[in-house]
Amino acid sequence: MTKKNMTTKNNDLTKHKKADKPALTRREALGLGGAAIAGAAIATTLPASAQKMEHRGSNMGTMKMDSGGGQSAMKPKKAAMRGKAGEYTIPTSNDFYARSVDQWDDWEPGMPGRDYTPVVSPNGQTLPFKIVDGVKIFQMDVREVMHEFAPGLKAICWGYNGLIAGPVIEAVEGDKIRIYVTNRLNTKTSVHWHGLILPSGMDGVGGLSQRKINPGETFKYEWTINHHGTFMYHSHTDTMTQEGMGLTGMFIVHPRKPKEPRPDRDFVLIMHEFDIKPGTYRPDPNVFSGYNTLTLNGRCFPGTAPLVAKQGDKVRIRVGNLSAMDHHPLHVHVHAFQVVETDGGIIPPGQRWPETTVLVSVGQTRSIELIADNPGDWAMHCHMTHHTMNQMGHDIPNVLGMDHQKLDWKMNNIVPGYMTMGANGMGDMAKHAEHMEMPENSIPMMGTPGPLDYIAMGGMVTMLKVREELTSYDDPGWYNAPEGTTATTATKADLRRDGIKI
Ligand SMILES: [Cu+2]
Question: Is residue 218 part of a domain?
Answer without folding.
Answer: no
